[in-house]
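pls design
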């Protein structure tokens, strides 16, 4: 299976489409077993996606695009991580389970608009920099493969918020 090389923005865009398709599947699914399987898949995909963006993509862009956009993206990731951890800890028959998945979907749709669809979005800004997006895409793809393998063999740890103040 030959992998086509993608730059960092193309890789992230592909991730966005994949998770959007999973949310659609969740909406159409019936039965707790099917819903739970899809919700867990959504959570795993989003944990991997946020990790590769936060470990590789965002740091490479820091100081080269609007820092406010990067800061906002990090906070948006953290809001999603809180829901991801809650969904993973829950069961499909929990009172707010479907609502949490729906709100997660809405948060991700908002985040995707800001990264790739709005005028002056993060991906447009990234393409206008001197950052080697092809090399960054290779790094991100390698880390993604590593995290997918970890998810399949051991499972991923709970998502770690990076910007939220932890209460003592």
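designed seq:
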């Amino acid at each position: 299976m030959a992998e086509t090389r993608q730059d960092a923005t193309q890789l992230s865009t592909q991730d966005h489409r994949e998770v959007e398709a999973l949310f659609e599947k969740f909406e159409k699914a019936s039965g707790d077993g099917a819903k739970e399987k899809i919700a867990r898949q959504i959570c795993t995909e989003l944990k991997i996606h946020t990790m590769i963006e936060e470990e590789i993509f965002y740091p490479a862009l820091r100081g080269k695009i609007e820092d406010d956009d990067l800061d906002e993206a990090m906070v948006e990731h953290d809001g999603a991580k809180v829901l991801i951890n809650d969904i993973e800890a829950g069961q499909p028959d929990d009172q707010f389970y479907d609502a949490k998945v729906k709100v997660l979907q809405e948060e991700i749709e908002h985040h995707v608009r800001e990264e790739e669809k709005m005028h002056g979005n993060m991906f447009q800004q990234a393409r206008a920099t001197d950052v080697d997006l092809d090399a960054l895409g290779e790094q991100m793809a390698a880390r993604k493969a590593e995290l997918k393998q970890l998810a399949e063999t051991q499972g991923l740890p709970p998502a770690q918020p990076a910007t939220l103040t932890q209460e003592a």
